[in-house]
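Collaborator request, handled under Task 6.
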Amino acid sequence: MKKIVLAYSGGLDTSVAIKWLKEEYGAEVIAFCADLGQGEDLKAIKNKALKTGASKVYMEDLREEFVKDYIFPMLRANAVYEGGYLMGTSIARPLIAKKQIEIAKKEKAAAVAHGATGKGNDQVRFELTYYALKPDIKVIAPWRLWPFDSRQSLIEYAQSHNIPVPVTKEKPYSTDMNIFHISYEGGILEDPWAEPPSDMYTMIVPPEKAPNKPTYIEIGYEKGNPVSVNGKKMKPVKLLQKLNAIAGLNGIGRLDIVENRYVGMKSRGVYETPGGTVLHAAHRAIESITLDREVLHLRDSLIPKYSELIYYGYWFSPERSALQKFIDEVQENVTGTVRLKLYKGSVTVVGRKSPVSLYRPELATFEAEEVYNQKDAEGFIKLNSLRLRIKQM
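Structure tokens returned to the collaborator:
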């Protein structure tokens, strides 16, 4: 191997990986850093990679592609893992890995590498994507190979080689941030009984410190995608940034869960997903008046499977692609506007309207009308109760 393309974040694991890969394989290490809206100083990250030993650094702004082609399709499916997690980390990995393979092809690199541990989900997500897009690629996962057995040992190695790291012995949190969310794990969070420190959060104001007056917003949808906030049309990235700011100010989007990793163990994770939480609620609301009952129920039955595919790393699988085609066809008439009330950590739908609404007041009303013959319900009930009556007989 003459060249290895490393997915590089500038954090502890990948900073050590550059040095270790060079020593272990004697290869040229090319670092790739994706801008997914993590809000970091990318120029400083690039300089750090070069200083640590990378021969070349690729920096790509993937925010628009990330939101439009990965986050929005996931939101169209109302994907949520184990009842709460909106999968901000899960959905980022296939895009990073895809670009990594593109760079490997361009550089004629024989191998790609990542900093995911041998205990987590990310190793699976990266590598399933690698192999789906380039079956003959060589994959190096340092955490499954090197002698370091903990983040503490990595810190000590980094310090002995003068590699600056953002993690300290006093506060060993592992974080992953992008435009959709931020995740926290490790340290005190490994105790599922311990409450997260109040100063740990970055995207969301504590609900108790949120404004005492509710904030009302309107989100416009076209074919299942959010396209406007309060009547103003916005491109995907700007729209998500706007909702992150509004929802974060109102304390919305925190989640503390113990989830089941794909590799089999349980893991405690704390997440902030402000804009995504609002969009999830709004999308379900606009679907409630635009989707046929049986289509809605069929789609909902597929949500757990679709969500598992993303969480487990099968974004580029034929089954995810097939499900996406069905979901996107279902979304053709999901157009309209949703009004929401944001208040101290809660999101409440207070209105929804659509030019293609299936909701008919003249059918739903409890007042006098001449559309629905209530006597028809008698035969409907008797036919549906027939098997129950026969069983009792």
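The cover message to the collaborator said: "The domain at 3-63+89-170 is CATH 3.40.50.620 (Rossmann fold). The CA atoms of residues 66 and 337 lie 24 Å apart. Please let us know whether this matches your experimental observations."
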